[in-house]
Amino acid sequence: MSSSQSTPATATKPQRVLACILCQSRKVKCDRKFPCSNCVKSGATCVPAGSIARQRRRRFPERELLDRLRRYEGLLRHNNIEFEPLHPSSTTDRSNPVTEGNSFELSSKIQAIDIASSVESPESEHVEETSSSKIINIWHVMNQRSQSPSDDGETDVDEYDVDKELHADIRLTNVKTALAYLYEDDDDSRFNFGARSDIDPTTLHPPQVDMIRIWQIYLDNVNPLLKVTHTPTLQTRIIAAAANLTSATPALQALMFGIYCVSMLTLSDAESVTLFGNKCGDLLRKFQLGCRQALLRCGILRTDDRDCLTAYFLYLLSTKPRAEPRSLSTNLAIAIRLAQHMGLHSEDLNSKHTAIEAELRRRLWWSIVLLDMRVSEMSDFKCSILLPGWDCKPPSNIHDFDLGTETKMPPAPHEMITEATFTVVRCELANFVRHSGYWLAFNNPSLTPLARRPPVGSSPNGDELAVIEKLVEEKYLRFCNPDNPLHFMIMWMARGYLAKHRMLAHYARHARAPSKQTEEERDLALGYALTLFDCDTKLLTSPLTKVFSWFTMTVLQFPFQAYIHVVQDLNRRPTGKLAGRAWAVMSANYTVRFTNWLGSDNNPLANIISRIVLQAWAARKAAVPAETVSVPGIVESMTNRKQTGMTPDYSLLPSWIQQGTNSDDSWMPMPIPPPMPMMNFDTFDPAYNFAWPDPMSNVQDTSSADLNMDQMNWGNPDWSSLQGGDQRW
């Protein structure tokens, strides 16, 4: 019979009749008629075997293991990746070697398979009931039916056709590849990041010797505070790139430019001229141009390369001193969304990477979040990312040399100060704050039910921060050596951060009835403000932290909130038990922030606060006999300014701040229209543009009773009661 005739015969072949259920259980021969003779004799009900679904036969572990191995081999073959099969004789002819020229495609395919095997594997549960951090994968759910075994459960491993399964499933990686192919001609210029120019980024690198010098500046001044790069591995790559720039990938070049940019931020003009023969402002603009062009070549708006995102973060950080905060906040939102696309916010996804990659992902995510928190404060915007909703762990307290490319298991954190401790402490403090009730009440009240309440008895007087303060003091600060520059930064940064948030927690507790505070509660809040002054003054005056002063002035908060609180308290209680100390501490900080750092107190910020300070001093003089009152330095300076009728002298500002006075947003990737005049007293910083008039120049002197700061909104941050000009702070 011909083959053409055999096909329909095979298709119409009657199905084999099985023995009835009772005969199968009795293990007797069945005549396979229904009812069968055995059931008729016994008077039992004859049930055909085909009418009941056969129970799935449990596979033995070896078969399951072979099944998985066969499936992974099929994935490798499907993506044309070389491997050593379990049975070379049966699979050699199906393997396709990958040519050497496709190294980029090979690396991307390996990454895709890693994602597919970790997320879409049939044995991985799509939701873990015991852990809230597990994510339901929609692609896994959609493909479950195509991945399930046959109905009778008897599929043999030798008949398991991987290729059929690959075609049955809708793979997420395949969809991503198809979409990328559809839009590969889009250069992102439509989104105002800047069109790619004809400038070759390699021509904007400094000479080879300067590359190494800038790298050392980065290691000394920047790396201890940020820790977004891994020194042992990155140094090898940078040295190789310095020897042959054309061999460096676009992402590595962008990262190198980002390092140049943030390193220039730490130098004075004199230091820059001595080291490089040019002012730091000129070099910074050159390196920022190179970084933008390198980022464009990386496809920054669609990247999944951590080096590229790190370069973008460093670039944005280098623009902060002269950036309009709302424009910078918009661009930071791009960095946050890129990080979320890469899964940096998810501990479940981070844990699937190698130990070194997972740690660098955590460090980068937290660095972006902390910078966004600071910029959100400055842009009069509620912090929307430092909230519950993601579960990335804070970085581990380990050294860079604890992590290697061959490290498989995460190293145990050290119980001592390490090179990453500064970053670790900042992140642990912020991680506690984002789950605190007072923080959620100020930033997103709808999430207040998610606040983590401290254990009963662990926080006296409802002080949520007592728990984290004790933890930080016992776990880190007690090991700090105050003679070590980095240890000194850790100590006073942490204590200043806690003091600031103790003030916020105090405001939250007394928001409904601020006038009903007791004297003890007012003294407690005033003590927090004075501690914030002390910490800021120590960080700015110590010779140990000179190389880190850029971070104090650029990233950490100017204590304007403390100025407002102290002045308000001195108006209400001019003879309080802490009044004398308050005047001394505030004067010391004023001297550092204005006279020493800015070169003179003849600047616009002094115009803003001088009148309310002088009112507080008038209340002090009226309440205390004149012969017992010594004039504080802040009052003496402000009185002289008022008597001489000084106007702000912008030439006294550092050159890199003067550059921001008349600058535009052309350097920003995503420029936005100029903001409406507004001032945010919570986060005002003198390191930014001072192009505004004295907002109180036409205000008549009023009595101290007019200043009721308890009626102000102490939320984070919603202080826009005074009008100013350009908001470059």
From TrEMBL:
Keywords: Metal-binding, Nucleus. It holds the Pfam family Zn_clus. Gene3D superfamilies: Zn(2)-C6 fungal-type DNA-binding domain. It is found in: Nucleus. GO terms for biological process: DNA-templated transcription. PROSITE patterns: ZN2_CY6_FUNGAL_2. This is Zn(2)-C6 fungal-type domain-containing protein.
